[in-house]
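Hi L., both proteins are below.
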Amino acid sequence: MLKNIDPALNADVLHALRSMGHADTLVISDTNFPSDAIARQTTLGKLLRIDNISAARAIKAILSVMPLDTPIQPSVGRMEVMGAPGEVPPVQREVQAEVDAAEGKASPMYGIERFAFYEEAKKAYCVITTGETRFYGCFMLTKGVIPPETA
């Protein structure tokens, strides 16, 4: 056990988050996403898991250690509902609340069409699958930077 590290973050996930650089993306996926097949095509090349918790809970844990690239652009994408791209289902509203809490302000997510999401996910640094069973519990996060402390 480590101090001040969310227990949902296992060693493999922590290593990947630390290894990512500015503007690298990661995918948080639900249980229906083709996680393993997509993960094999990412930079990391293997699937990571945070099992038995929701997508919102996983994102809360990740954002406790990883900065988002929000000053420049929206940094969290969500898979759009097929046929209703403006619809934001409960799982996505829960994630939006975690993103806003982590950023300390409203940080709206952007939509990504389902098949475009699959293609963008292949370009990600890694895929982390969760225990989320609800549809459209798939998200893409862009890593930001931590500025130096001023002397």
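That was the first. Here is the second:
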Amino acid sequence: MSGADEPVEIAWEAARATNHANWEERVPLHLDAYDIASLRDDPVRLSGVVETDMETMRAHLGPDGLAGLDVCHLQCHIGTDTVSLARAGAARVVGVDFSASALEAAAALARELGVAARWVETDVLAARAAVVRELGPETVFDVVYTSIGAISWLNDLDAWAAQVAALLTPGGLFYIRDGHPVLYALDEDAETLELRYRYFGDGRALAWDEDTTYVGDGRITHTRTYEWPHPLSEVVMALLGAGLVIERLDEGRTLPWRFSDRMIELPDGNFAWPDEDAWRVPCTFTVVARRPA
């Protein structure tokens, strides 16, 4: 992967358009590379991401978990995690993404699996207005869910957190598990744990050029993408600034994708740093927050 060591100035609209072209191209590659067959073969199977996330969410949802709850999945991509949330018991699931191709694939998957779901095409930074437009002004959710590899694509976490709060019903729960910003500051090609990229952000983006994605062997032509570094403090303060109450903050040592060639695959399909490095750096963070009743 080729990344800019120094951040670049780029308007959100231009960066968004570049990223959109890249993610549109990822859809057919991910339909081949994601383990969709296992969802087809086993009617109660959950994606590995949702299975992991449910272990944490259950402690904050009560004994019935998602049963009977309305769930909004932000940045849902091709819907494997969205349909898994429905299988985990959600009464209604709504997936939000900016890629029309991804939502078409998600809708087709849901139909094939017999899962009732709605899909809203929008930038996540305008999610509330789009949900109101598509589903009505009374629409709010018991749970808003985001996972994984999501918020580095956003330039403004205050705007993001405001959308989350506006989508939640009073007393509703927000859950996010994402790549840890310390992980994203590491040189993914180094033979040891070495910092290369910025941990702290200043509004500028990091530019990447890569003709592959995080899974599968396919190639894409829209290779340029832009991402923004967000320290963990920025994530937490954005959610607090939107009026949410933090109930949990965790840091994890495994990832559902191979960030570096040095990572080893675990029996459960996740990836970790080898040996003592697994104890030296976090791979993910998890925040559970709630909108006050």
